[in-house]
Amino acid sequence: MKTISLRTLVREPLKVKRITRTGQSVQVTDNGEPLWILQPATESDADEAERRRAIEEIFAEVLRERPSKISAARLLEESRR
Known about the structure:
Blueprint: E1 2-5, H1 6-11, H2 13-21, E2 26-30, E3 33-38, H3 45-64, H4 72-80
Parallel strand pairs: 1-2
Antiparallel strand pairs: 2-3
């Protein structure tokens, strides 16, 4: 990820456009504090595959956890009291 200042973004937007066109993300900072992360609009297939793998990993971790003894309906009823 490339980091640029807010001033650079305002003064040289084509520089940021060139960076994002190559598929890189750009972090915009103001006085060293991160403000935004700009990402390219189109993702490559490799990025999409990595994203899906990460999501599946999270789901697998959740499924490995022990199920709760408290039902969702009971939680809902308790919250309404």
